[in-house]
Amino acid sequence: MGKQSKLEVCTQLSNQFFYYLDEFEYGKMIAMMRPNARWFRQGKTLSGHDAIREALHQRSSTQRIRHIVTNGFIEHEEAEKIHYLAYMLGYRYDDGTRCAPPLPINGPVRMLLVDMTFLRTPEHGWLIDDLKAIPEFEFPVLSVNY
User: Fold this and answer.
1) pLDDT by residue (tens digit) across 94-130?
2) Where are the alpha helices (H) located in the chain, listed in sequence order?
3) What is the CATH number of the domain that holds 56?
């Protein structure tokens, strides 16, 4: 962990994880998780790398999506375990084609509570053991006429 605080490490890992998700870099993203990690995503609990990979490959490949993670803090910590909470806004555009940004949207799709547990492993350092993305607010999708 070097000179980084545990909070800095958790913030870095959560931001990196969602960036890889946004960029469809599933191998890098899954490598940040323990082999038997759990992820509560879109109302379902996915357990283990294979189940997570399978769910991710069902995502639309034409979407442009961004997850903004903010207000993160350590809710509880032990020597080898950290419980981290943050808020996340999701922005999404998908008209079924690959479009270059900037893309027209009216605002975020939803706001979620991100609840992450990190465990320190001897071989890989801090890895995600449990992740919950719990919707707090849904924003109506407005039609866009350009």
Assistant:
1) 999 988 889 888 889 999 999 999 999 999 999 999 9
2) 6-22, 26-30, 48-56
3) 3.10.450.50
Q: How far apart are CA 44 and CA 21, in angstroms?
A: 17
Distances (CA, A) of 40 to 47, 101, 108, 112, 145: 9, 30, 20, 12, 35
The DSSP output letter for 141 is P
Q: Is 35 contained in some domain? A: yes
DSSP string, 92-111: EE-SSS--PSS----S-SEE
Do 17 and 29 meet the contact criterion of CB atoms below 8 Å apart? yes
Identity of the residue numbered 61:
S
Q: For the chain, how many structural domains are there in total?
A: 1
Q: What is the pTM of this model?
A: 0.91
